[in-house]
Amino acid sequence: KNFTYGVGPKYPEAVIGHYTQVAWYSSFLLGCGIAYCPRQRLTYNYVCQYCSAGNIASRKYTPYLEGKPCASCPNDCDDGLCTNSCRYEDVYSNCKDLKDQVGCKHPVTKDKCKASCKCSDKIY
């Protein structure tokens, strides 16, 4: 209700980071925990960890691809969600360019651009 795809928050004070994190297109592992702290003002503390992390600043207002469910994974779809997640991630934001320029055998690309090099047919 506070988020518009491609635009961001509907008003300046809107908190959207929790939504964009949950909706992030490439997150495929999720773990949450809860701690009970009876002597604290906030009695319960909830924490979730996502892999891949998501909420990348340059893509925060487009946390997924707009369009029909599973349009980018027609052969790997379950209940409207892609199931072909990449088990690697790119450390650098310019990995696509690095792969094109020096290839995947270059030490930097091989180490820091594993998703770009190993997951051309997967979601990452």
TrEMBL record:
GO terms for cellular component: extracellular region. PROSITE patterns: CRISP_1 (PS01009), SHKT (PS51670). It holds the Pfam family Crisp. The keyword Protein biosynthesis does not apply. Transmembrane segments: none annotated. Disulfide bonds join C95-C113, C104-C117. InterPro entries: Allrgn_V5/Tpx1_CS, CAP_sf, Crisp-like_dom, CRISP-related, Cysteine_rich_secretory, ShKT_dom. Belongs to the CRISP family. This is CRiSP-Dr4.
